[in-house]
Write a structure and sequence with these properties.
By secondary structure, this protein is of the alpha+beta class. It contains eight helices and ten strands. The chain has a domain at 8-35 and 115-281. 36% of the residues lie in helices and 24% in strands. Strand 1 and strand 2 form a beta hairpin.
Length: 284
């Protein structure tokens, strides 16, 4: 019987994962494949028009019943460098993403130096195991699992834990995983930092198609909010860890406001049914 363990690594350049030297799928791309297309230029174009032509934008919006495509079609000629302005807005989104990445790296470095973290799940102190520091000494990649068999990970706190499923050719990095020994075996809690402008329980209403966006089949019964999207990702991480014999306990995301630094935690359920549907219908 083929073993579940493999040689796994991640490289920052290109944001690439490899399982036994074969390029793997990231959890973000995996879950993202079930989302509808993000119409970046259309959204950015409406932001530009709303900010620079507020009165005309309101009139056009009333005329076209909020249809963003028709609003852009009517008003884009009113702004001389409209296309450049749209590109600038999209670029600002990338800059915010980089700030989020910097925050992740800053927190990881802080706790690695400290050697422990107090878990927000049970307020107990979790030490960082030696295997975390040893894997950080590798020169052939930017991240890797502390050990191939994730089921053998000792009790402790794991920042940026690289989780994988060899048989699905799937990899991802969870910001914070807490593992503890219990009478029923090793149990884990999992948390991820998010720096979106806001965390939404419902998506924005799509005035062009006159509906709330949903995920694609077989998840088309669910509205595509970023809270549910992150819940799916964390549930995939939990599913992969469970396949190594670890027992799932609690999961959450922590939203960080980049302007104020304030944090708010969102406990999340385990979306087991949806995770199994994705496994069944994902097209590689």
């Amino acid at each position: 019987m083929e073993t579940r363990t493999a040689k796994v690594k991640f490289t920052d350049k290109g944001h690439l994962y490899y399982i036994d030297n074969k390029k793997a799928i990231s959890v973000s791309a995996y879950v993202g494949s079930f989302k509808e297309e993000f119409r970046a230029e259309e959204i950015a174009g409406n932001i530009v028009l709303r900010e620079q032509l507020p009165e005309l934008y309101v009139k056009s919006s009333e005329k076209h019943k909020g249809n963003p495509y028709e609003i852009i079609k009517e008003l884009k000629g009113e702004i001389e460098n409209f296309d450049e302005e749209v590109k600038s807005v999209i670029k600002s989104w990338s800059e915010k993403t980089q700030k989020g990445t910097d925050l992740h790296n800053e927190k990881e470095s802080q706790y690695l130096e400290q050697g422990y973290k107090i878990s927000p799940f049970d307020n107990k102190k979790y030490l960082i195991p030696d295997c975390v520091y040893k894997k950080n000494e590798r020169k052939d990649c930017d991240n890797a699992p502390p050990m191939s068999d994730l089921g053998e990970l000792p009790e402790g706190y794991y920042p940026e834990l690289l989780i994988y499923d060899k048989f699905q050719n799937l990899c991802g990095q969870a910001d914070e995983v807490y593992i503890k020994n219990t009478p029923v075996g090793k149990v884990f809690d999992i948390d991820d930092y998010k720096t979106d402008g806001s965390i939404r329980t419902r998506p924005y209403y799509d005035k062009r198609f006159k509906r709330f966006p949903t995920f694609k089949f077989p998840l088309d019964h669910i509205q595509d909010s970023n809270l549910f999207y992150y819940g799916l990702k964390i549930s995939v991480y939990s599913r992969m860890l469970s396949k190594f014999g670890l027992k799932r306990n609690k999961q959450a995301i922590t939203h960080v406001n980049l302007k104020t630094g304030k944090e708010k935690r969102y406990p999340l359920p385990y979306y087991g049914n949806e995770v199994k549907l994705m496994e069944k219908y994902f097209e590689k």
